[in-house]
Every structure is written in C-alpha cells, then in structure tokens.
Amino acid sequence: MRSTAMNRAQRGKLALTAAALGASLLTAGCGYITPQQTSHQYSASDGIRADLGPLQLRNILIVSTGEDKPGRLIGAVYNSSSKDVKLTVNGAKGSQTEVPVKANSYTLLNEDSDEAILSTTGGKPGSLVDVKISENGTNVSNTVKVPVLDATLAEYKDYVPTPSPSATSSSASPSADSSASAGSSASSSASAGAESSAGATPSATATATSR
C-alpha cells in the first residue's frame, strides 16, 4: 500500500514553494506585461520553474521508471488570475495531462487527489525531456525541458506511477485466449475421436454378419 505521507524534506520544499507563490500574488500587478528579472531566477530544487501567462510552475519534474513507462508530473502550479485556469501538458508520443487551478490559488501535484500522469515519459531517469505547456482557451504555450527522476531518491518513491488495472487485464488476455483456444482444440479432438469410434461400429457389425 502506498504511503500518502510526504517525507520531511519534500514537505519542506513544497511549503517554501507555496509561500513563495503566495507572496508573488501581492506583487503580480502588470508583471506579466513587462518581463521581470525574477522570472529567470534559479530554483534551488530538483525540478524546474517556468511562467506561462497567469500560471507559475514551480519545482516541476517527472517521476518515472523508464523512457517508455508512464511518468507522474509533480510540483506546484499557481494561478494569479481571477478566473479558474487549466494547464495542459503534452509529452512524448502524444501523451497528455491536464492540471486545473482555481483562481488566485495553486495546485500541488504531490497530493494523491491531483495526480497528473503522462502515459509515456519519453526519457530515461536522469535525463531532460521536452514537454509543451499551454493554457487552455488561449494561444499561450511554451516548450520546457523537465528532469526525469526515479525512486533512487527516497523522497520520490511514493510518486512512481503504478500500472493501471486495465493494462494488467490487457496483458493477461493473451494467456486467457490461449487457454480458451487450447480448451476448444481439446473439445474438437474429443469430438473427432468419438465420431471415429462411431464410424467403426457399422464396419465391425458387417464383418460379423458376413461370417
């Protein structure tokens, strides 16, 4: 069973992220019209930061076990506008996930209730992958490089995506089909044997009669 509790280090990072995002609301103003130096600050964390219109992405990274495996987006997304906004994230091979964010609020992707999963990560753990971020309802978009990490760091082990039940069922189907086919073949063989035995009876009777 997966633990829902964050470890102390990760909780501290998120607390600092939330505090920084809350403070940014007070100084937002017309900052999205005039570029600010603060938009290019370095994030002292494992993830990246990026700004997209009223959306501020902080400590964003992907947790996955492999290039062709699903990846979970974690971090925080803040919305400084007065309306609800939805962030769309497009990854490798057509993978996509959406993150709804309430007006003047933020969404922590580290919570169980807000899982954002890309069906295909597109990069091995330790690499950077290109993902396209866009704000629904507008033409505002950007492509950013996001780091991929796995459970090597204990603080991320609870965020590694697990295979969905449908995928497990799908993988089990061929075996079930094989068993069904084998059963069908066995039934056909038994029927053929019975018919062969039935066909031999008249011949044996005829031979006995002629004698």
Task: Please provide a written account of the structure.
The chain has 211 residues and is of the alpha+beta class. The chain is 31% helix and 28% strand. The chain is built from 2 helices and 9 strands, in the order H-E-E-E-E-E-E-E-E-E-H. It has helices spanning 8-26, 165-210; strands at 48-52, 55-63, 71-79, 85-90, 96-101, 105-108, 116-118, 128-135, 141-149.
Walk me through the topology:
Blueprint: H1 8-26, E1 48-52, E2 55-63, E3 71-79, E4 85-90, E5 96-101, E6 105-108, E7 116-118, E8 128-135, E9 141-149, H2 165-210
Parallel strand pairs: 2-9
Antiparallel strand pairs: 1-2, 2-3, 3-6, 3-7, 4-5, 4-8, 8-9
Derived from helix and strand composition plus strand pairing, the structural class reads alpha+beta
Uncertain spans: 1-6, 23-43, 167-182, 196-211
Radius of gyration: 29 Å
- Biggest sheet character: 9 strands, mixed
| Number of DSSP E strands | 9
Percentage beta strand = 25-35%
Total of domains? 2
Helix content estimate: 25-40%
> What is the chain-wise order of helices and strands?
HEEEEEEEEEH
**Count, helices:** 2
Distance between the termini: 79 Å
User: How would the global form be characterised?
Assistant: globular
What integer is the average pLDDT?
Answer: 73
What is the compact description of this entry?
With 211 residues, the chain is α+β, with helices and mostly antiparallel strands. Helix content is 31%, strand content 28%.
Features:
alpha+beta; nine-stranded mixed β-sheet; 9 strands; disordered C terminus
